[in-house]
Amino acid sequence: MKAPSLGDNTGDIDRLVKMLNKLLPDMTITPEFSLIKRTPAILREQGYDVEALLYEQANTLRLFEFLPRTRENLLRGLAVDLGSSTLVVRLLNLETEEVEEEASFLNPQTEIGADILSRIHYAGQPGGLVKLRRLVVDGLNREIHRIAANRNIKPESILGMAIAGNTTMTHLFLGIDPHWLCREPYIPAANRFPLFKASEIGVAIHPDGPVLVFPDVGSYFGGDLIAGIIASGMAEREELSLLVDVGTNAEIVLGNKDWLMGCAGAAGPALEGGVASMGVMAGPGVIDKVTIDGSSGHVQARTIGNTAPVGICGSGLIDLAAQLYLAGMIDVRGKFVAERCGKRLREIDGTRHFVVVPSEASATGLELTLAQTDMDALLRSKAAMYTILTTVTNLVNVSMKDIKNFFIAGTFGSYIDPRSAITLGMVPDLPIETYKPLGNTSLAGATEVLLSRKARLKMDEIRDRITYIELNVNQDFMNLFSAAKFIPHTDKSLFPSVQLIK
Q1: In which region does residue 70 sit, left (phi positive, over 0), alpha (psi from -120 to 50) or beta (all else)?
Q2: What distance lies between CA 56 and its chain's CA centroid?
Q3: I want to staple 148 with a disulfide (CB 3.0 to 4.6 A). Which of 155, 313, 373, 406 is the partner?
């Protein structure tokens, strides 16, 4: 810009906005008040030669910072997966789109309750909602400061953020009462959120930087699943695709570029390894793969990192159950068959247990066992999963065989063996190549929206296209559930590839 003079006495911020209007003629430009106060000093210090930082909000461009034209500092932003169990934070270079750092940490709200329902109930107590919000925001800010220190930058030099989480986590993060999410008719306080300034919600990045919180669709269908749809690309494909994200719940989306239908159900905890007595979340020393020799009964367990086992995660549990069934060690009801299990079967406190890892081979020095009650819980979860899939496909009158892409999101999807899931009757008997693990799609979708205006517009379009089914009031679900509790199913013609080892 030309510097002001006696013959050109335009105000500093007006001068800047006038120049920007020439470059961006179709946009309304609104400077932040905090920047107006700093503008005279910055412009004179930089000789009226600066980079202007703006972000789009509706049809307005918000001007919120200046940088020197000769700057060395990079433009950075954060993508966040706001998980109920784990938060994942990704620092990105907004100019090169490179990932500079990524870290995960346990959601601090787990000290209140591991499950979402207990947090919703706690939020209803005096001061409960404030504490839950403070826990997650403080935890996120600690991680932001740690990452900034690692990169030798100031937290406020991080300019923007995109956050994807389930509906309850989004409510708790923003300090919105989640009371009605778990009560009929299961309605969120809001499904859409404005673009926040970081200072409005207490996030420790640039105080005027934009924070985009993904919209929700329903009480059990949140922004993390919309992020997953973006990451999978299923909303742009001609062929029929299905996305499954197993977390606290099992969340399902079915559709293509023309239509999308979604729902969620309580199938998640057992499939995450959260129900079995030896169940733990995936990590070093956790069993993620099991094979059983049908003739000898020998159990081979593989762990993440190839260290002594400490427990078993959801994918390992599914492998174990499938192998037990194929070896004839459990029957179609999931009950242990004593003559096939042999010495590995014992009774503890009146309950049958199958010894997966003897005490001398485990990292804990204790036997790792699968109880009959654990197996029963797993079969209920697998039945719920298959019933969710059946209910959704029935509602739109399509066959499971019409599904060309079966995307599996999350850590669960990264480790699961589709062959084992088919054997149990948890997922349909489709060609193995149909199953495509995608990893953390919540984080991937948040990354795309942070970096791309096109993805951000796609986010709103996808949200408006989704038809959401509330399974809590679907009678067909309960009818189908009973038939799916057997291995692989009461109708074995649905699973022609599942054959017992002779």
Answers
A1: alpha
A2: 26
A3: 155
Closest Cα partner for 222 from 255, 202, 193, 259?
193
Give tens-digit pLDDT for 109-144. Answer: 999 998 888 999 999 999 999 999 999 999 999 999
Domains of the chain: 12-68 (no CATH), 76-213 (3.30.420.480), 234-269+378-494 (3.30.420.40), 284-372 (no CATH)
**Residue 207, preceding bond cis, omega within 30 degrees?**
no
Give the integer Cα–Cα distance in Å for 25 and 83: 41
Peptide bond into 31 cis (omega under 30): no
Residue type, 120: I
3-state DSSP assignment of residue 326:
helix
Give how far Cα 457 sits from Cα of 30, 87, 163, 302, Å: 21, 25, 15, 43
400-448: pLDDT as tens digits: 999 999 999 976 667 789 999 999 999 999 999 999 999 999 999 999 9
Whole-model pTM?
0.89
* DSSP element (H, E) containing 42: helix 33-45
CB count in 10 Å sphere of residue 465: 16
Asked whether 192 and 179 are in contact (CB, 8 A), the reply is no
* Per-residue model confidence (pLDDT) at position 479: 77
Lowest mean pLDDT among 94-98, 212-216, 238-242, 408-412: 408-412
Q: Beta strands 210-213 and 158-165: pairing type?
A: parallel
Task: Dig out the tokens for 124 from the structure.
Answer: 């209803």
Task: Identify each DSSP E strand in 191-349 by its residue range.
Answer: 196-197, 210-213, 241-246, 250-255, 260-265, 286-292, 299-303, 311-312, 345-348
Residue (of 434, 393, 435, 429) closest to 414 by Cα position:
435
Cα 276 versus chain centre, distance? 22
Of 278, 287, 285, 252, give the one whose Cα is nearest residue 266.
252
| DSSP code per residue over 420-486 | HHHHHTSS----GGGEEEEE-HHHHHHHHHHH-HHHHHHHHHHHHHEEE--GGG-HHHHHHHHHTTS
Q: List the one residue out of 40, 90, 34 whose CA is nearest residue 62.
A: 34
